[in-house]
Batch of 4 targets.
Target 1
Amino acid sequence: MKFMQLRINYTENHGRFYHELLVPLQRWLAERYFYRWNIARGWQNGPHYLLTLDAGAPFYRDAWQAALLERSNTFLQRCPSSPLDAAAHRALQVRLNTLEAAGIDPDVIEPNNTASVHMTTLEQLAAKYESPQQWRSVFDTQIRLHKAVVAHWSGADGGINERFAFELMVMLACVYPPAPSDDPEVFEYNGFLSYHSNYVFWRHGLKPEQQAIIDRRFSDGYGAAHGSYLCWLDALEADLAQAGHRSSELAQALVASFLEHCQLARDGVIHARSPFARERLADQQQVSAFHQRYFYDEDGGARAFGLEFSAYRWLLNIVYRTLPLLNISPMTRQMLNYALNRLQQEQAPAIGRIRVAMLTSGTPAAPIMKAAA
């Protein structure tokens, strides 16, 4: 299986890119019956967008390579992005290359405001996954998510990104079936608990003085934004009651992806630690008390999790990878993790109504037509 990738080196992520390049490009591809593509935002070898097209899907044409390059270069000439601080970005690449095991040369930075096309294969794209099926599930889910991101940027509220990320993360958490908790430290076993887990894991890696700063900053930030959070939650509930609303369509896409991932977990394609090996586990003494309690068994081995948790964790990590398209920084993501865990405890009835609205808003979105096996 072959895929075409268009890389656009661009320092900024703003509405003009979507209005003037991506939305017209999406329309151009749709007019040619082609929907098997997605977009990501990356930092590797310079800030960039990466469009990936399934070259094995129906209606794909090799001649599109030249057309996409021409469109991209025309946009870059008309709307160049700000110059890149190469020294600062190299320093960033050194940190992220180690943190994410990206395997790049951190000294290499592609020229800004340029575009290039190359062909690749499923095997190459899936090299860091346990199987090609895992990568394809990520690709398929990102197709659904990028449609919502593009619609957001091209809509009237394009650029109000934290609210959209808030709504996305609330709906994501609501796809996971809740269960009562007998642990006084856990409000409920639900999708929001993973936000708390991610936040606790991140906070545990900070120095004590940094933890104190974060505790104050996030507590104050939550208080300052609390009114906005309540308004956004009320608006989301109202939007989900409207058939055909953007939020309803995104809810159906998230539910559909979760159900598909449950089937992948049932088939053994993914598990709770995918894409890492099942046996891979951090040193128990190096993680937080929360993670020691919930991720290790009595013998210090990896705790077994149900299929639904494996599916939800897989979907959660795909959504997290989408947030850079919304200009959500790692720090803002952790603030949302912190805030949503608190908010769901205060607003449990509203969260319950949103969950029901999502599950009853219509038939989950069908998968985009795929290439023949």
Note: The chain has 13 helices and four strands.
Target 2
Amino acid sequence: MNTLLLRDARLVQDGCITPCDILIRGQNVESILPARSGAAADCVRDLKGLYVSAGFIDIHVHGGGGHDFMDGTPEAYHGASALHLQHGTTAMLPTTLAASADELLRAFSVFEQCRDAFPDGAKLLGLHIEGPYVAPSQAGAQDPKYIRNPDPAEYNMLLDACPHILRWTVAPELPGAMEFGRELKRRGILPCIGHSEADSDTVLEAMRCGYSHITHLYSATSTIVRVAGFRHAGIIESAYLYDGLTSEIIADGCHLPAPLLQLAYRHIGPRRLVLVTDAMRAAGQTGGESILGSLENGQRVILEDGVAKMPDRTAFAGSICTADRLVRTMVTMAGASLPDAVQMITETPARLLGLDDRFGRVEPGRAADLAVFDHTIRIAMVLRDGAVRYEN
């Protein structure tokens, strides 16, 4: 098998930055050696002190490169996954929107066709189903006409149709949502709380039914409300209060201002906090208009100020960012150390999904899925399964 030596790298892992050489044999990391070790290899690439980390893992992403996964075509999966790979993402969960059962089934079918089809794109680990079982009052960019309560006949049919659903975002206060959470947990799928107006008591009940993760904290999530003079905590407060919950944030620098990024980083911390793009098809673009969701039934959105907005500008409609921007934002706006920022998009999401035995770290025997970047977190090179798939 061919060998590749990444010489004079700085490995970002385990809370520190370690000068090293990384020897790759075939698709896997073979060893991590002292810097400028002099090890022989078929090909030697001198990184001259560039940072190397495990490839980024985006567990909430709708599209990119002009494509949305709800387009339901192989071209969409290829285009979106290739765009995000160029920004350091080597694994992702394509994410759906609220839709009819037939449209979801079509999305599942295309995912199965594409799961292992595109070596120049991020690995498609499984699906994240966002909606249709969400609160109308917290719909955000979800199409209200497709929002409904969990129905066992429907969701069991959908679950049976696709064995690669890894997470599902639900409003736990909806009728039937607690039973749905238990069914997801029974099937080994991560039940997530999102697009919800649940209070903290409902969150606690949901946790007992298997829910353990909060989808895009601060976005379409409840906070303190006052009822008959009494204050009730919401999802946001629960994220800080309950150690059994993990949370994700859209750290694009638009969805959350610096104080909220800092608050989440300092008080939830890198072991319980995940960075996600929540990117829609316009990821990588800077202006104009686009479509959120499928081209056939999607929502028109406006691109301005570095984010996608609903046409009336009353709400954001997903981000247009990429994973490298998430890391950069956490370092520059939240004051996170580089190792902590990287952990939140490598090790922490891998552990959340139960995939940390294979993904999220650079270790001998694991696939050589690597992101190489400079001190400004600009991507210089991306490797997938030991092959250089992108180089700037």
Note: The first strand starts at residue 3 and ends at 13.
Target 3
Amino acid sequence: MQIVINGSFWSQPTVGIGQYVHNLLPWMYRLAPQHRYVILLPAGTTIPALPDGIEVLPVKIGGPRQVAKVIFEQVAVPVIAARLARNGEPTVLFVPYFAPPLRSKLPVVTTIGDLIPLLLPAYRGSWAVRIYMALVRRAALHSTHVLTFSSFSRTTILNYLGLSPDRVTVTYLAAGEQFRPPVDKVAVQQLVAARYKVQPPFIYYVGGLDERKNVYTLLRAFALVRNRYRHVTLVIAGRALGRDRRLFPDIDQMIADLDLGLAVRRIDVPVEDGPLLYQACTIFTYPSRYEGFGLPPLEAMACAAPVIVSDATSLPEVVGAAAIKIAPDDVAGWATAIARLLDDETLRAELGQRGMVQAASFSYQRTAATTLTILEQVAQALVIERKQHREEIG
């Protein structure tokens, strides 16, 4: 079998879909090296190191960036994949993000992590974005099979896109192998203190700063407990990726309005330091209102951090019984949970242990195995279809 992959996100290993493909593809090759893997990349893309067994085929597309993106996804990828299939091998096109081609001569397996741009009005963007999302929504209906990251997202896809249940499969994400408990937590805290000027104890959040991430609830909850815990800092890692204040609230203004001042520390964390902050923090918090999966809480649990999350969308499914779950807009509930963990070292240790067990129940090996099973089933159906066609005309 040949697996032709839309590799648009291979050059972005720090974003969610980039992390997904960087962890998934090496495991796919390890589990099934007999298949041929070809990743299509826009020409000129910076290419991080590729795993063994993955071939790269650069694709040159001219024109403005957004136009080139659509041409790559909707024209170049399906056409080149079809050409590669001329060698007679069963070939499946794998699109690991929400951008399947509207037309393809080959069966298409598409990963849809969530439907946020379709479901949340604030994320629908400009008219151009809306047209694009209408296109890929229609294209998703023609996908042979859809993969998604949680049962919550699967149910949403079934209800919103109207796909039949046998065409949508859950393939969970997992924390990368670099996320593990600290060997010496005090030493890690000292390193974080030196590098980021953050002393323990501290509460940690990492992620987007857009509206659905609900950082304002965290800030308001911290403001309620601040006077009692003057020695505790709230550390926020992340940055706004746009200027639209409806989508990206002014976090600094919120901090000033709540009179939190130096009690909140905003930092940028390079990808290689990601595990350090999880390992060093006293509590990890994730108040998001909407997730298709929710990787940061799982990464934090893999590092033995006690976790508080919203009891919304996919997050309860990800953390199980290994985290405290609070309604996303229950500011008093968040303040109570934070105070409870700050006061109870035993509970923090218990949640840390339970979190490690929960995080270990997810693995990219299993994700890759399920993905391969679907791809192989689709390829086998193609073989049967071709055989029946030959018999009909023969």
Note: The chain has a mean pLDDT of 91.
Target 4
Amino acid sequence: MARAIKNVLLVGGTGNVGSHILAALLRTGLTVTVLTRGSRLFPSGVVVKKVDYENSKSLFEAMQGQDAVVDASFSVENDVSLKLIEAAATSGVYRFITSDFGLDPDLPGVHDLPVFERKKKSYEAVKKKARDTGLTYSLIVCGPFLDLNLSAGFAGIELKGRTATLFNDGKNVIPWTTLEDIGTATAGTLLHPEETSNRPVYIHSVFMSQLQLLDAAKDALGPDGWEISAQAMTPLFQKSMKEVQSGRITPMTFGVQIQYAIATRELARPWDRDDNTLVGLQEWTTEQVRRLIKRLASQ
């Protein structure tokens, strides 16, 4: 029988993902504590604990009495997530949601990409703790963030500039999930601890290709004035791997690896399992995507 989850500790409650998780947790009526290194204002009803992530005792004390820990820190420091997992296991936390929020970690090759090294280490660590202690875990597997990627142009489509760079042929269909849906699904995972124990939780707002997103953008913003090109991703990926091997790493080194992954069916494709209904999500319609695009383009 799964343990009821009432008290939740959120790490990284101010980021793009964490802020939406915080809002969703508060809607459920769970008791929420936010772990922070700085001085930030949070909504009323949120308990705030300031800690030193380098201090194991500080983390251990902060996790006392918590049923679940959600890591939305996205720290570039590999050891932060590992320290959080260790502290959760030693302090009696029941459920740990890792800072993954991306592609399927159980799909061969995904966690072998250098860009996902931190996620791989966290996944391996939390699985080991689940075998050796009373800690259980979940991962939220959501694909790229739909609204954030469209807004930033990282999906290859610049809404305001009306340009599109297709990764390969732009036809690879993958899961995309909005930040709000990720928040809802994270809270829903904690409300269903038995069904989501020790496994990835597979969610999506839509299954769409770049070309389908581009068609939605043309419908939403008008078909005229678009400049469209295609980019072969394998040469860029090979270049990024050489940069990793030589130590000459730039932000685009890892950005290219993510774009290569979402263009490659072996690494990104619609999930075989669908947990949307379980965690309280409904798949979006194409019309909803068009409305999102209109809103993002007007901002």
Note: The first helix runs from residue 16 to 28.
